[in-house]
UniProtKB/TrEMBL annotation:
It comes from Streptomyces rimosus subsp. rimosus. It comes from the Bacteria. Keywords: Plasmid. This is Secreted protein. The lineage of its organism: Bacteria, Bacillati, Actinomycetota, Actinomycetes, Kitasatosporales.
Length: 75
């Protein structure tokens, strides 16, 4: 009986540690994304009208044209 209790307690502790690890990892990823976006926002706010900002990251490319409405392009 005590072996079963010890084994179950160990399993619960292991599962709780895994859940805590996943939560911390996910939270860290969200915070890093927010910091990157905040940096982009601050840089864009400081640019004059007509400027173009292109940022490339791992699997994405962001192009921001200051002074144009969404959907307006160089046609």
């Amino acid at each position: 009986m005590p072996e079963t209790v010890i084994a179950l307690t160990g399993l619960v502790v292991l599962l709780a540690a895994r859940l805590l690890h996943r939560w911390i990892s996910s939270r860290t990823q969200v915070q890093l994304f927010r910091l990157r976006q905040n940096g982009t926002s601050e840089r864009v706010r400081a640019l004059p009208w007509g400027s173009v900002v292109t940022e490339r990251r791992a699997n994405e490319e962001v192009r921001i044209e200051i002074g144009k409405r969404a959907g307006e392009g160089d046609e």
